[in-house]
User: Which sequence fits this backbone?
């Protein structure tokens, strides 16, 4: 086989491989199941509990990031890796959801007194929950295709 045909065959195989990988990745992201939605609500409770523990332990107010609450394997807890949640949740992606943490501004002594967390499905479909919480500990949800917020109904 001539070298130029080998090169074209290689290019064709490369394109097929890339297309197959793209289709596979797209299929891997499915809307969260009811169980995943329950886990997202539970994760919000975990984050709220971790924030209270962080504030009580480090005297800095709430954490500056979701990652600051997470564990780092083999390392002692610190304000930047407190070990209060697992690394998976600290990464911001879990069970078909993306978690977005926003700390409030620091006050005069440098403490963070407020925060918000949203959990949005990686792939939304009708009826799937988006979840919100903040320093009040109240968890709120919406089934609309948007981030939940502080005006949405609280779960009971």
Assistant:
């Amino acid at each position: 086989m001539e070298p130029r045909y080998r090169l074209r065959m290689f290019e064709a195989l490369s394109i097929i491989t890339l297309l197959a990988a793209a289709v596979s990745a797209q299929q891997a992201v499915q809307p969260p199941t009811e169980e995943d939605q329950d886990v997202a609500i539970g994760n919000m409770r975990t984050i709220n509990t971790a924030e209270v523990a962080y504030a009580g332990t480090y005297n800095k107010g709430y954490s500056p990031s979701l990652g600051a609450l997470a564990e780092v394997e083999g390392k002692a807890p610190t304000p930047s890796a407190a070990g209060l949640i697992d690394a998976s949740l600290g990464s911001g992606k879990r069970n078909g959801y993306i978690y977005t943490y926003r700390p409030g501004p620091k006050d005069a002594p440098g403490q963070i007194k407020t925060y918000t967390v949203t959990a949005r499905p990686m792939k939304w479909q009708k009826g799937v929950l988006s979840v919100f919480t903040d320093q009040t500990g109240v968890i709120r949800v919406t089934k609309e295709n948007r981030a939940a917020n502080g005006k949405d109904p609280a779960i009971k």
